[in-house]
């Protein structure tokens, strides 16, 4: 599709295969997934009580189950999705499929009038979101040189944070101002735009091997042992050979893959960093609202602003910390991040304790708590993507 009849070169090849456009596609895909993850939160009461007739006393329990099942599905399906993504001949097709699956899951959630349908929609949504993350980062790894991976990951983390911030806010605002179906329509429209961007994207490893690329055919005498990385009508790229390797070889590699990586201390450390980082961020969503409600009497608005303070710094600090990781590696940022977060997390729980000087005055205790949340929002960027970069780094 999108070909000119005269030379069969894709229309817009230069910008469609450019690194900035590929980064934009992945950033928007992950923005969409985090946007959809929180988008459902303010709509759940209407979904459960009004459309599915869940008793008011059970809404909190069902809400917790729906939010938890997303992570459980991600954990169960991630290895299988990664295996299928590696077997695919291109990254574009799995990306499109992942977004289509997320579209089906979102539509199922919106249409469901039975509780099992709500859970089914959330499960499908979780599979699509997990696939988007896995294939998205694999596409980045194919497209970006290792020395720039940290900056790209930091930039994308900024988009992810904006998605996490805007999802619940946009859903709540649209639900109040426009109604149920227009609210869901905005989420589905965002997914459609995302799918269109995936269709436009020409991944770089495909561009190198595509005979319709705008490069001139290489002369035979210029071909050498490295020319497989440059596409031409008469040569194959390494990626095209790798992607079409015999199934038996892939199967043998798959059987031994996890045994090999789980025997590496570096891999285990990277996985531990990822688990710790994710668990810490998830704990904020469940502990901060309850804590500030009983400690300071804050309602939904100030609590929501606290999460803006927690996620907002990523927009600025994410790219800066990514640049720092590119310069010095992942070890120093991770060490600084964890060492700084230890006292900050303690202070987060002690900000309202009367035995400490700063907590004797209520306003001082509130200011301390807010400042601590914002500082944590900055420092967590040192840990963002550390596990992924450590696993994919050369």
Automatic annotation (TrEMBL):
Molecular function via GO: transmembrane transporter activity
Record bears the keyword Transferase: no
Membrane topology (UniProt): Multi-pass membrane protein
Matching InterPro entries: MFS, MFS_dom, MFS_trans_sf, MFS_Vesicular_Transporter, Tet-R_TetA/multi-R_MdtG-like
One cellular component (GO) term of this entry: membrane
Protein's UniProt keywords contain Transport: yes
Keywords: Membrane, Transmembrane, Transmembrane helix, Transport
SUPFAM superfamilies cross-referenced by the UniProt entry: MFS general substrate transporter
TM segment ranges: 21-44, 64-82, 94-113, 119-140, 152-175, 181-200, 267-285, 305-325, 332-349, 369-389
Major localization listed first in the record, in broad terms: membrane
PANTHER family: GH10249P, MAJOR FACILITATOR SUPERFAMILY (MFS) PROFILE DOMAIN-CONTAINING PROTEIN-RELATED
Protein name as catalogued: Uncharacterized protein
Taxonomic path: Eukaryota, Fungi, Dikarya, Ascomycota, Pezizomycotina
